Each structure stands twice: as C-alpha cells, then as structure tokens.
C-alpha cells in the first residue's frame, strides 16, 4: 500500500514537471515564432522600400551641373562614386570618364570581382525609371553564341582533319608510290 502511494506520488511529481517543461517549450516556440515573423516583416518592408528614381537625362545633367560629382549608371542602377574615386583600384580617371553616362559595358569589360560588386552597393543612390531601363544580354550568353558559331565552322569540325588526311595520303602515294 505504502509502495502504491509512493509510486503515485512520484508520477504526480513527474506529471507536474512534465507540464512545466511543456509550458516552457511552448513559450520558447512562441517567442521564436514572433521574432521570426518580425524579421520577415522587416525584410518585406526593406524590399518594398522604393529607391530614388532617375531619368537618364537627369544623370547626364547631374554631371554638367555638379562638376565635382561622379555619378553613373550600371545595369539600371545609379551610383555616386565621388567619395570612392581615390580608393578605386582602377584609378579615378576611368570613373570620371564615364560620369553622367551608362557605364554598364565598361564595367563588364573589366570583369570586376564579386568583392567589387559587393562594394558597389555602398555607392548606390537610386535606380533608372522603369520606362528607361535597358536589359542588355550578358557576356556568358554572347560567349555561348560565339561558341556555336565556331562549332559550325568548317575548320573546327571533324571533317577538316579527315579531308586533310586523305589529301596527304593520296599525295604521298602519288609522289612515292
Ligand atoms: C561602383 C562602381 C565600381 C566599383 C565599386 C569598382 C571596384 C573595383 C575594384 C574593387 C577593383 C579591383 C579588382 C576587382 O576586385 O575586380 C576594380 C578594378 C578596376 N575597375 Fe572598377 N569599380 C567600379 C566601377 C568601374 C567602372 C565604371 C570602370 C570603367 C569605366 C572601372 C574600371 C576598373 C578598372 C580598369 C580596374 C582595374 C582592373 C585591373 O587592374 O585588372 N570600374 N574596380
């Protein structure tokens, strides 16, 4: 009898401890859910924040009106690199030469690293208005095109070495055979 009372007492304690643990877990899960929903709200708000919109004319005017500012467009994004001129590893002249213009091609021609692309975010001041955006084909695509062109050319196909082999064999047997 004593044993039964002891066992039931133990179970009661365990049950109490279990529900305590459950409550803590529930509270923890709720706080995680709240903080993650807050974070996703913040992210959504950041994504919805519209950056300043410029026309291409405004950017070229910016250059003529503020002679000391170096502002240009790369892939429909407007950058003000005035404070970056002296730090640019490619020198300040190249940046000043494209001020007021669309520098997308010049930027791509250099083959800037991912680090450079990360760094660019610091100098972003806005975007080009939707109606004036241009979406140029990227380098990889044109490389694929070139590859196809080369592949279809006669000298790079398998026919050329085979034909050359036949001609050389015929010539050899004609001369020395
Ligand atoms: C916000 C815009 C830009 C940023 C943050 C930037 C950043 C950099 C960085 C970090 C490098 C070192 C190499 C690398 O990491 O790729 C570099 C090199 C260079 N950049 Fe830029 N750049 C910008 C725009 C431009 C533009 C518009 C041009 C051309 C008009 C240009 C021309 C060059 C050249 C010629 C080099 C030297 C490449 C070499 O020595 O191999 N950059 N730039």
TrEMBL record:
Source domain of life: Eukaryota
Domain Cytochrome b5 heme-binding: 51-129
Record carries keyword Aminoacyl-tRNA synthetase: no
GO cellular-component term (any): endoplasmic reticulum membrane
Pfam (any one): Cyt-b5
Topology term for the membrane: Single-pass membrane protein
SUPFAM superfamilies in the record: Cytochrome b5-like heme/steroid binding domain
Keywords: Electron transport, Endoplasmic reticulum, Heme, Iron, Membrane, Metal-binding, Microsome, Transmembrane, Transport
GO molecular function, one term: metal ion binding
Subcellular location: Endoplasmic reticulum membrane; Microsome membrane
Chief location bin: endoplasmic reticulum
PANTHER family given in the database record: CYTOCHROME B5
Protein family according to the UniProt entry: Belongs to the cytochrome b5 family.
Protein name per UniProt: Cytochrome b5
Organism whose genome encodes this protein: Spodoptera frugiperda (Fall armyworm)
Lineage of source species: Eukaryota, Metazoa, Ecdysozoa, Arthropoda, Hexapoda
Name of the gene this protein is made from: LOC118273802
């Amino acid at each position: 009898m004593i044993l039964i009372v002891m066992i039931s007492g133990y179970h009661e304690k365990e049950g109490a401890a279990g529900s305590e643990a459950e409550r803590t877990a529930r509270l923890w899960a709720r706080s995680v859910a709240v903080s993650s929903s807050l974070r996703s709200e913040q992210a959504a708000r950041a994504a919805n924040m519209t950056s300043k919109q410029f026309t291409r004319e405004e950017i070229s005017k910016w250059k003529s009106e503020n002679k000391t500012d170096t502002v240009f467009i790369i892939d429909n994004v407007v950058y003000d690199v005035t404070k970056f001129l002296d730090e640019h590893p490619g020198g300040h002249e190249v940046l000043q030469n494209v001020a007021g213009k669309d520098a997308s091609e010049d930027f791509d021609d250099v083959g800037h690293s991912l680090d450079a692309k990360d760094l660019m975010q610091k100098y972003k001041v806005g975007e080009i208005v939707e109606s004036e955006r241009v979406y140029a084909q990227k380098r990889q695509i044109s490389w694929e095109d070139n590859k196809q062109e080369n592949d279809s050319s006669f000298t790079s196909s398998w026919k050329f070495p085979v034909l050359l082999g036949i001609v050389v064999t015929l010539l050899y047997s004609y001369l020395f055979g």
